[in-house]
Specification:
Blueprint lengths: L1 H22 L18 H11 L2 H11 L4 E6 L2 E7 H10 L10 H6 L12 H17 L5 H20 L8 H17 L10 H15 L6 H4 L3 H4 L6 H29 L7 H12 L8 H16 L1 H15 L1 H17 L15 H14 L4 E6 L4 E3 L2 E3 L4 E5 H5 L2 H4 L36 H18 E4 L24 E4 L2
Parallel strand pairs: 2-6
Antiparallel strand pairs: 1-2, 3-6, 4-5, 7-8
Helix pairs in contact: 2-3, 7-8, 7-20, 8-14, 8-15, 9-12, 15-16, 15-17, 15-20, 16-17
Length: about 500
């Protein structure tokens, strides 16, 4: 009996110790709401973020409440630091200590249960494969003339599709996403991803879109409470991600096997795309301890696929929405495009290399990215060792979230951040300039992998559309400037008419 009492006392003591430990803030941790026992701030965070329309808005409200550009939270068992404002955001993006990635259930689920690829890894694996992948992507044309040739072909195909609408109201986003991914797939796999008769891309894009809206940058409930997948696999999004992973894996492996068979048939080196480069590196290494393997290749393709699937097409989609709502902006863009085309040839394609001649277009694109901030919170990063930020102590392995929206809508810097005004990026001579508070692709070595593709596609597609079509809102159509929350912000569905210019 005494032994039972002793064990019960030990158990009660352990529970009480665990309770108080879960509520205790680390010493000199950034300010924020109080931690609840075992749950931290998870329930309060999700409830208030949902009520306000997104976690990015909640973080800024808490920043005002606690009078700090650094917030200290606890989501589940993870300590989370949110960096807001230009100074803190810049410091986090440029310091090596914050180049890590968290290792949690949600991020491993994103990469099919592994900790591989480029986006969600760090350390030696990340350095090695990021450098290899970017070197090979540049070799096959990423950021160069070959990529622009792919963009030109997809732009012409897009113009043909828009012509076939016969001025009927349409939702442009699906065609835009298909065009961007086809450019990317030519660099990765050496061919377009899909023909009009094949539904593969449409199915994958639909799954990617559903995934983006269901989760946030913190991973939702699955990140904090992975066991919920056994209780509510549909509601938590677990089944959706598994379905997406299965379809993507099958699609990627089918393409990889095609490349493998071609290599075996030719018995000669090939350098047309990224997949060939990885397969040949795997052959040349031949070492079981090498990090170049099939799983790493699949996850690297996945990283590029996710990076190119939505943010670029959504930016173009938002730009078209603004043009339909702002005839004054559309007229200025058309006047600039027409003037530039007359200087060369009306058949000349507007490659990114000619961007310096399109100052208003450049300013317009930058204002779309600033105003809508479709990635309001980026990251997540991981502190690789104990450090200090803004005078506060950051524990090792703390998750760091970066509030880009707080920079792009900083009233002290921009003056009127809630006004859509491309002229803010033009100097007195009408020349476009880069503002240091403008950072849609991030900074430092963790800068977005797909920035070169994004900049080229956004510019070239918009110039071609403005050159060839009036963009008109159908009667009764009123697009919303309020975006839907998720991993990235997305516009609510809207329709426009593409009327051929004569």
């Amino acid at each position: 009996m005494s032994a039972l009492i002793f064990l019960s006392t030990i158990l009660v003591g352990f529970v009480i110790y665990s309770l108080f430990k879960s509520m205790r803030r680390p010493k000199n941790f950034p300010p924020g709401p109080r931690f609840l026992p075992w749950l931290g701030n998870t329930l309060q965070f999700r409830k208030e973020a949902r009520a306000l329309g997104g976690q990015h808005i909640l973080f800024e409200r808490w920043s005002e409440k606690y009078k700090s550009n650094l917030l200290g939270l606890k989501l589940g068992q993870e300590y989370v630091v949110v960096a807001l404002g230009h100074e803190m955001v810049r410091e986090v993006q440029l310091q090596e200590v914050y180049e890590g990635r968290p290792d949690n259930f949600f991020l491993r689920l994103r990469t099919m249960g592994t900790r591989k690829g480029i986006t969600c890894t760090d350390g030696k694996l990340w350095y090695e494969h990021r450098n290899f992948a970017m070197k090979q992507m540049r070799h096959v044309g990423y950021g160069r003339s070959q990529m622009e040739q792919h963009i030109e072909r997809e732009a012409e195909e897009l113009m043909s599709q828009l012509n076939r609408t016969q001025e009927e109201p349409i939702e442009p986003v699906t065609w835009l996403a298909q065009s961007v991914l086809n450019v990317l797939w030519c660099l990765i796999a050496g061919k377009r991803i899909v023909s009009e008769e094949d539904s593969t891309l449409y199915r994958l894009l639909d799954l990617m879109n559903r995934r983006s809206k269901l989760f946030d940058i913190c991973g939702g409930l699955l990140a904090q409470f992975p066991w919920l997948r056994h209780v509510a696999p549909d509601r938590t999004g677990y089944n959706l991600i598994r379905q997406l992973n299965t379809e993507l894996y099958g699609f990627f492996m089918g393409t990889i096997e095609e490349h493998r068979r071609q290599l075996e048939k030719d018995q000669t080196p090939r350098d047309e795309d990224l997949i060939y480069a990885y397969l040949q590196e795997m052959q040349s290494n031949g070492d079981e301890t090498s990090s170049f393997n099939e799983t790493q290749l699949v996850m690297t393709i996945l990283d590029f696929f996710i990076a190119g699937s939505q943010t670029t097409s959504n930016t173009i989609n938002l730009a078209l929405m603004v043009l339909a709502m702002r005839k004054d902006v559309q007229d200025k863009l058309f006047a600039e495009v027409s003037a530039n085309m007359e200087k060369t040839s009306t058949d000349a394609f507007p490659h990114l290399s000619r961007r310096e001649s399109f100052d208003y277009m450049d300013a317009f694109i930058m204002e779309v990215q600033r105003f809508f901030h479709i990635t309001p919170i980026t990251g997540p990063r991981r502190a690789l060792w104990p450090t200090q930020l803004g005078g506060y102590d950051i524990p090792k392995n703390a998750t760091i979230l970066i509030g880009l929206r707080s920079v792009h809508l900083d009233a002290k810097h921009w003056g009127d951040p809630l006004e859509f005004r491309p002229e803010r990026f033009l100097n007195a001579d009408g020349k476009c300039f880069k503002d240091e508070f403008f950072m849609p692709f991030g900074m430092g070595r963790r800068r977005c992998l797909g920035d070169a593709l994004a900049r080229a596609c956004i510019f070239s597609f918009l110039v071609k559309i403005a050159q060839n079509f009036h963009i008109i809102l159908p009667a009764g159509e009123t697009p919303s400037m309020v975006l839907l929350p998720g991993i990235t912000l997305t516009p609510k569905p809207y329709k426009v008419q593409f009327v051929k210019r004569t």
